[in-house]
Design brief:
seven-stranded mixed β-sheet; 11 strands
Length: 116
Amino acid sequence: QVQLVESGGGLVQAGGSLRLSCAASGRTFTIHTMRWFRQAPGKEREFVANYAWSGSFTYYADSVKGRFTVSKENAKDTVYLQMNSLKPEDTAVYYCNALSAGYENWGQGTQVTVSS
Protein backbone atom coordinates (compact mmCIF):
# COMPACT_ATOMS: atom_id res chain seq x y z
CA GLN A 1 0.00 0.00 0.00
CA VAL A 2 0.91 3.62 -0.47
CA GLN A 3 0.48 6.40 2.07
CA LEU A 4 0.06 10.02 1.02
CA VAL A 5 0.48 13.18 3.07
CA GLU A 6 -0.41 16.58 1.63
CA SER A 7 0.82 19.92 2.87
CA GLY A 8 1.16 23.51 1.72
CA GLY A 9 -2.39 24.76 1.80
CA GLY A 10 -3.35 28.10 3.27
CA LEU A 11 -4.97 31.46 2.71
CA VAL A 12 -3.86 33.58 -0.22
CA GLN A 13 -5.18 36.61 -2.03
CA ALA A 14 -6.49 36.37 -5.57
CA GLY A 15 -3.61 36.46 -8.03
CA GLY A 16 -1.25 34.86 -5.56
CA SER A 17 0.49 31.51 -5.58
CA LEU A 18 0.73 28.40 -3.45
CA ARG A 19 2.63 25.16 -3.80
CA LEU A 20 1.06 21.98 -2.49
CA SER A 21 3.12 18.92 -1.69
CA CYS A 22 2.10 15.28 -1.67
CA ALA A 23 4.66 13.00 -0.04
CA ALA A 24 4.29 9.33 -0.88
CA SER A 25 5.60 6.48 1.25
CA GLY A 26 5.27 2.73 1.42
CA ARG A 27 5.24 0.75 -1.81
CA THR A 28 5.94 3.78 -4.00
CA PHE A 29 7.59 1.63 -6.63
CA THR A 30 4.12 0.35 -7.51
CA ILE A 31 2.71 3.84 -8.29
CA HIS A 32 2.03 4.53 -11.95
CA THR A 33 -0.13 7.65 -11.76
CA MET A 34 -0.58 10.53 -9.38
CA ARG A 35 -3.59 12.81 -9.56
CA TRP A 36 -4.79 15.94 -7.85
CA PHE A 37 -8.46 16.55 -7.09
CA ARG A 38 -10.28 19.28 -5.23
CA GLN A 39 -13.60 19.64 -3.50
CA ALA A 40 -15.27 22.95 -2.83
CA PRO A 41 -17.99 23.33 -0.19
CA GLY A 42 -21.26 21.90 -1.42
CA LYS A 43 -19.72 20.56 -4.61
CA GLU A 44 -18.53 17.19 -5.82
CA ARG A 45 -14.86 16.33 -5.91
CA GLU A 46 -13.38 17.35 -9.25
CA PHE A 47 -10.30 16.37 -11.18
CA VAL A 48 -7.45 18.90 -11.32
CA ALA A 49 -4.36 17.25 -12.80
CA ASN A 50 -2.88 13.92 -13.77
CA TYR A 51 0.83 13.07 -13.61
CA ALA A 52 2.47 9.89 -14.80
CA TRP A 53 4.87 8.72 -12.09
CA SER A 54 7.54 8.34 -14.75
CA GLY A 55 7.08 11.99 -15.64
CA SER A 56 6.26 11.16 -19.21
CA PHE A 57 2.74 12.52 -19.31
CA THR A 58 0.79 15.27 -17.59
CA TYR A 59 -2.57 16.84 -18.26
CA TYR A 60 -4.79 19.34 -16.54
CA ALA A 61 -8.41 20.28 -16.18
CA ASP A 62 -9.36 23.17 -18.43
CA SER A 63 -10.14 25.29 -15.39
CA VAL A 64 -6.51 25.23 -14.23
CA LYS A 65 -4.58 24.80 -17.48
CA GLY A 66 -1.86 27.41 -17.84
CA ARG A 67 -2.01 28.31 -14.14
CA PHE A 68 -1.21 25.04 -12.33
CA THR A 69 1.83 22.84 -12.85
CA VAL A 70 2.59 19.39 -11.48
CA SER A 71 6.15 18.25 -10.86
CA LYS A 72 7.93 15.52 -8.93
CA GLU A 73 11.05 15.34 -6.82
CA ASN A 74 12.25 11.81 -7.36
CA ALA A 75 14.60 11.67 -4.39
CA LYS A 76 11.72 12.40 -2.02
CA ASP A 77 8.87 10.59 -3.80
CA THR A 78 7.02 13.87 -3.55
CA VAL A 79 4.71 15.42 -6.10
CA TYR A 80 4.03 19.14 -6.13
CA LEU A 81 1.14 21.21 -7.42
CA GLN A 82 2.31 24.73 -8.17
CA MET A 83 -0.72 27.00 -8.32
CA ASN A 84 -0.32 30.47 -9.79
CA SER A 85 -2.78 33.25 -10.59
CA LEU A 86 -5.16 31.85 -8.02
CA LYS A 87 -8.83 32.78 -8.18
CA PRO A 88 -11.51 32.69 -5.49
CA GLU A 89 -13.12 29.80 -7.35
CA ASP A 90 -9.99 27.75 -6.68
CA THR A 91 -10.97 27.64 -3.01
CA ALA A 92 -11.33 23.99 -2.03
CA VAL A 93 -9.80 21.10 -0.16
CA TYR A 94 -7.13 19.64 -2.40
CA TYR A 95 -6.38 15.91 -2.40
CA CYS A 96 -3.66 13.88 -3.99
CA ASN A 97 -4.42 10.42 -5.26
CA ALA A 98 -2.12 7.56 -6.19
CA LEU A 99 -2.94 4.74 -8.55
CA SER A 100 -0.78 1.66 -8.13
CA ALA A 101 -0.94 -2.04 -8.88
CA GLY A 102 -4.65 -2.47 -8.27
CA TYR A 103 -4.92 0.11 -5.49
CA GLU A 104 -6.10 3.66 -5.18
CA ASN A 105 -4.94 5.72 -2.22
CA TRP A 106 -5.91 9.21 -1.08
CA GLY A 107 -4.24 11.79 1.09
CA GLN A 108 -6.04 13.56 3.90
CA GLY A 109 -6.47 16.80 1.96
CA THR A 110 -5.22 20.32 2.48
CA GLN A 111 -7.36 23.46 2.51
CA VAL A 112 -6.72 26.23 0.00
CA THR A 113 -8.62 29.46 0.46
CA VAL A 114 -8.35 32.30 -2.05
CA SER A 115 -9.73 35.65 -0.95
CA SER A 116 -10.98 38.24 -3.41
